[in-house]
Design brief:
Number of strands: 29
Radius of gyration: 22 Å
Strand content: 35-45%
Organism: Laticauda laticaudata
Helix content: under 10%
Number of helices: 4
GO molecular function: semaphorin receptor activity
Domain Sema: 33-474
Protein name: Sema domain-containing protein
Distance between the termini: 42 Å
Keywords: Glycoprotein
Structural class: mainly beta
Shape: globular
Length: 474
């Protein structure tokens, strides 16, 4: 079930909207009561699915009207701000087999077909066209476009291979970011795990979002010719080194001229004093230019956090917020500067069973962009290699070129994709040793910067960030 404190139901802060997708797993009365005092006249409002077999996967809040949209197994719900069901749309189950590619909707499949649940993998509000983009696990990840008012199906493209976004069945395997324009159709950046099928699915791509929900070009690549497309594919020979390699996307957002994704990636590292290698997971931020149709601007850099000698390296959640005037003064930045709130658990080895020791850390997006610019400049001076874990089958050296690289440089058809080797460390704000932090949102309240973190056991904690020392980290 999901609950909502009655004294908060009338107005949801607009800056909370994307983060509610990550809060659903801890949405219960106990979690919110950790934040707000109990009051017998203000009970918690609740919404429960009709069946115990229906689990909730994603949640988004319409920042204009306060309506709540819930993506679940086989269902999409629209709720009022009082958690009253206003509309519902059934998405499954249906006859399918995950091994059918293309899906049986397009051509007959020789695999045995059975009734299969549709797990909601992505839920996005397209404000410009007043529609909800709901992508599921059926048929290699096709999506429905639903009218926000009543969840009426506006379109469900499935005829072209671009319509199959991801064959992974896990609910958290896909992340999308919409880039809006005033005078042209929007773009949808899609990032997904590929589950060992790099020949079928790009790990990141930019897609068209036409006004017409039934347009033939819906979800088509922004650019595609014989040699270049608006996508990044993991080379198949990467899987000879790391058979279970994948890129797991935790969070995504746009800021300025760029789109960013935060990821977890497996890597093979050498043990100290030994030729033996072991697999660990590295948290990395990926950046792309919004207008780069050839994806020559792809850069990734490792991120992590450290406090009192303890390394926190496994990314759990993230959220982008503004600094606000009081925190900005403490950090020596502007109130409108972007601050990235991140949650890491201890170590690098246990992706599925993360340790309870965890930390809330912040990064200044400007610092990250400065580090990326430094790396671009050094590579275009011919220094080092491209340094990407998923290109490690061969070290590709940087090529020298005489050009000016400024803050908005978007790459050339050389020295790309590019990696940064040195980790950027965040500033630790709060640590938890017993009850792992699993989610975070943040917003500005009367110039104060506040973060709310959710824990494994369902507790909600408020963290103030007003009086930090001036940032001295990298």
């Amino acid at each position: 079930s999901c609950c909502w404190p009655a004294n908060l139901r009338t107005k949801v802060p607009a800056t909370w909207e994307p983060g509610w997708r990550r809060w659903l797993g801890m949405c219960n009365a106990e979690s919110v009561s950790a934040l707000l005092p109990s009051h017998p006249k203000k009970p918690f409002l609740t919404f429960s699915s009709e069946s115990t077999e229906i689990s909730f996967n994603h949640l988004v809040v319409d920042k204009r009207k306060g309506s709540i949209y819930v993506g679940a197994i086989n269902w999409i719900y629209k709720l009022s701000s009082d958690l009253v069901v206003e509309a519902r749309h059934e998405t499954g189950p249906d006859i399918d087999n995950p091994k059918c590619y293309p899906p049986r909707l397009v051509q007959p499949c020789n695999e045995p077909l059975t009734s299969t649940n549709n797990v909601n993998k992505m839920l996005l509000i397209d404000y410009k066209e007043n529609r909800l983009i709901a992508c599921g696990s059926l048929y290699q990840g096709i999506c429905k476009l639903l009218r926000l008012d009543d969840l009426f199906k506006l379109g469900e493209p499935f005829h072209n291979k671009e319509h199959y976004l991801s064959g992974v069945n896990e609910s958290g395997s896909v992340y999308g970011v919409i880039v809006s324009y005033s005078n042209m159709d929007d773009k949808l950046f899609i990032a997904t795990a590929v589950d060992g099928k790099p020949e079928y699915f790009p790990t990141i791509s930019s897609r068209k979002l036409p006004k017409n929900s039934e347009a033939e070009g819906m979800f088509a690549y922004v650019f595609h010719d014989e040699f270049v497309a608006s996508m990044i594919k993991i080379p198949s020979d990467t899987f000879t080194i790391i058979p279970d390699f994948d890129i797991y996307y935790i969070y995504g957002f746009s800021s300025g001229n760029f789109v960013y994704f935060l990821t977890l990636q497996p890597e093979m590292i050498s043990l100290s004093g030994s030729t033996t290698k072991e697999q660990v997971y590295t948290s990395k931020l990926v950046r792309l230019c919004k207008e780069d149709t050839a994806f020559n601007s792809y850069v990734e850099l490792p991120i992590g956090c450290e406090k009192n000698g303890v390394e926190y390296r496994l990314l759990q959640a993230a959220y982008l917020s503004k600094a606000g005037s009081i925190l900005a003064r403490s950090l020596g930045i502007l109130p409108e500067d972007d601050v990235l709130f991140t949650v890491f658990s201890k170590g690098q080895k246990r992706k599925l069973k993360s340790l309870d020791e965890s930390a809330l850390c912040i990064f200044l997006l400007k610092k990250i962009n400065d580090r990326i610019k430094d790396r671009l400049q050094s590579c275009y001076r011919g220094e080092g290699t491209l340094d990407l874990a998923w290109l490690k089958v061969k070290d590709i050296h940087c090529s020298s070129a005489l050009l000016t690289i400024d803050d908005n440089f978007c790459g050339l058809d050389m020295n790309a994709p590019l990696g940064v080797s040195e980790m950027v460390r965040g500033l630790p704000i709060f640590t938890e040793d017993q009850d792992r932090i699993t989610s975070v949102i943040a917003y500005i309240y009367k110039n104060h910067s506040l973060a709310f973190v959710g824990t494994k056991s369902g507790n909600l904690k408020k963290v103030g960030l007003d009086f930090l020392k001036v940032w001295k980290g990298s």
